[in-house]
Design a protein that fits this description.
The complex is a heterodimer of chains A (323) and B (271). Chain A has 323 residues and is mostly helical. Helices cover 62% and strands 1% of the residues of chain A. Chain B is of the alpha/beta class and 271 residues long. In chain B, strands 5-6-7-3-8-9 form a six-stranded mixed sheet, sandwiched between helices. The chains are: A mainly alpha (323), B alpha/beta (271). The interface between A and B is large, with 54 and 69 residues.
Chain lengths: 323, 271
């Protein structure tokens, strides 16, 4: 009868370990506290080991995205093109923004595509944790893989649309120039910036689901103040100097200006586009102004956003599975 | 040495050698409290939400559940431990906590490496094909692309997904729940884990698959791993686990050899 009421203690350590408390036992065998987040260098190492996963995940998602649409991946190019068409009609033709900007169509399309890259990376980042809870709860991997992979997806989409963008720019009469090589560093910096923002938004979005309702408004406001479809430089000239400086640091404007300069350096040449009015009082396009130190601004934004975003995301690593 | 002889008589399976065992999971007086959102009769209307924000009150729909109350045990290398208990007794919560998905309110859980939790509800990527899920799952667990290529066929064969036609190239949302669970188990079991936590994932498979998974669990244990199994199927607990922990109301009722614990559990006798 006592065999039932007094079962063997299968938990108790035996042999040389007999008598150790659970904590001592765990320490002796180097067990770690479950769910504790790894140190930052260890986290970076784990993430690096998952680089193949990030690439494969991004490609698989990109392919799966449009499987239910008949036109398939054509939508990757069609969506921003339709956006361009709408903006051209409203801002270019009706609100006459095109008169003041040299090669307006190319200028507009570069802006739309570049801004779209940041916008969709942030939106996808916001949902990257909450939409993939099943995967997060099923397998262990560094969670930063997800916001990074979603930014890679947006980068892949941008690269596909770049083909169309080059065609538009050539059709607008802009000739290829050496500055086209600047597209590469500009894209790298913007990708770093976007990844940082995506990681910040991923952590916020995983805790506060209300944020995904709010994001479209925030992003739209950002788009309208950044001068995607009209040139902001004309508007801010009458502002106090300090506000002009603050405004020129807007990362969206910085990355758009960089890309516009890379694609069509001639548009920034005051000799070619002096502005003013022609004999019939029609406004002539005025050369664009590339802010001083724009590469420093672009680089600073990229590094600051990426490092802060990464650390901010890592700080909550152990909490993402809870939902 | 009267004590020693007495205890030898007592024990159903006597421990012959006092060997030193390597612990893999140490659960030290763990309490788990979690918040449930959207519980209770709280009105979800806009006006009630607004008045709550103005009054700075906490949402009434958040309730705290004390799911695990002071459980302690240690699991060792090569053990397969079953967790049994009625619905809502805290078994799955315990597993989620060992996996590091739920924080402990009090006490601590120490594990060897990162435990891998395998549950029936854990969906992978439903809009992707089974094929992609296998590759991505393996890569996520940290395999190299070359290793994935090598193991891919083995995983598909193990899951038995392709027994009735070419299902592996269809999106996972088209799978039956049993097929999905089989594929998920096959992916997770492809790698040797130090600690594998299985939450009722075996119940959904058919007979052939259950046999294969039992064999695989044995292999995983031999590869110096520890397996935890939560199940309401007492027979699969009996076949897989030699040790079983009985949990009721978040407290441990019994921890012992499977035969004894399951026998008492089936009779409903608390020791």
């Amino acid at each position: 009868m006592s065999t039932l009421s007094d079962p063997v203690n299968l938990s108790a350590p035996r042999g040389t370990d007999a008598g150790l408390t659970p904590k001592q036992l765990a320490q002796k065998y180097g067990l770690s506290v479950s769910g504790k987040r790894p140190s930052l260098p260890e986290y970076v190492r784990q993430l690096w080991a998952r680089r193949a996963f990030i690439g494969a995940f991004a490609t698989a998602r990109l392919v799966a995205q449009y499987t239910t649409a008949k036109l398939g991946q054509l939508w990757q190019v069609l969506t921003p093109l339709l956006n361009c068409a709408v903006f051209y009609l409203v801002f270019g033709v009706i609100m006459r923004s095109r008169d003041g900007v040299p090669v307006y169509i190319a200028w507009l399309c570069v802006g739309v595509f570049v801004f779209q890259f940041s916008q969709s990376a942030i939106q996808a980042g916001t949902r990257s944790i909450s939409d993939n809870l099943g995967l997060i709860r099923a397998l262990y991997f560094p969670r930063a893989c997800l916001p990074i992979a979603f930014t890679v997806i947006q980068l892949q989409q941008l690269l596909i649309s770049m083909v169309v963008l080059v065609a538009i720019v050539l059709f607008s009469g802009v000739m290829p120039a050496m500055t086209w090589f600047l597209i590469i560093p500009a894209l790298i910096l913007q990708s770093l910036f976007n990844t940082g923002l995506a990681m910040v938004m991923a952590r916020i979005g995983s805790k506060t689901s209300d944020i995904s309702q709010l994001m479209p408004f925030l992003l739209r406001t950002w788009m309208y103040v950044s001068g995607v479809m009209y040139s902001v430089s004309g508007y801010i000239q009458s502002w106090p100097k300090i506000w002009q400086t603050v405004y020129s640091w807007n990362p969206a404007t910085v990355y758009m200006d960089l890309m516009r300069y890379a694609f069509m350096p001639d548009s920034f040449d005051p000799k070619k586009y002096p502005g003013g009015y022609d004999a019939s009082g029609h406004q002539l396009p005025k050369a664009l102004i590339l802010p001083d130190h724009i590469w420093i601004m672009a680089g600073t934004w990229a590094v600051v956003a990426f490092v802060l975003g990464f650390v901010f995301f890592w700080k909550a690593e152990e909490e993402y599975g809870r939902g | 040495m009267a004590d020693a002889t007495l205890s030898e008589v007592k024990e159903a399976t006597p421990v012959a050698v006092e060997e030193t065992r390597t612990p893999t999971v140490v659960v030290d007086d763990v309490h788990i409290v979690y918040k449930v959102h959207g519980a209770g009769a709280g009105k979800g209307s806009a006006t009630s939400a607004l008045s709550r924000i103005i009054a700075r009150k906490k949402s009434p729909s958040i309730r705290e559940v004390h799911a695990v109350r002071g459980i302690s045990f240690t699991a060792y290398k090569g053990e397969a431990v079953g967790l049994i208990g009625s619905n809502g007794s805290g078994k799955s919560t315990m597993l989620a906590a060992i996996a590091g998905l739920l924080p402990t309110e009090k006490g601590a859980i120490y594990t060897n490496g990162q435990p891998s939790l395998l549950g029936v509800n854990a969906a992978l990527m439903n809009d992707l094909t089974g094929e992609r899920n296998v590759v991505l799952g393996c890569l996520a667990m940290g395999m190299s692309p070359a290793e994935v290529r090598k193991r891919y066929q083995g995983i598909v064969d193990f899951s038995g997904i392709n027994e009735k036609g070419d299902f592996i190239s269809l999106p996972m949302r088209t799978y039956s729940s049993g097929m999905g669970a089989r594929l998920r188990f096959s992916i997770a079991a492809a790698k040797t884990h130090d600690v594998l936590l299985i939450d009722e994932a075996l119940a959904t498979g058919d007979q052939g698959f259950q046999q294969r998974s039992k064999k695989r669990i044995d292999e995983l244990r031999k590869a110096a791993g520890t397996v935890f199994l939560v199940s309401h199927d007492n027979n699969s607990i009996r076949e897989v686990c030699e040790r079983t922990i009985w949990i009721e109301h978040g407290e441990m009722v019994m921890d012992g050899h499977t035969d004894e614990v399951v026998r008492l559990y089936e009779k409903g006798e608390r020791p």
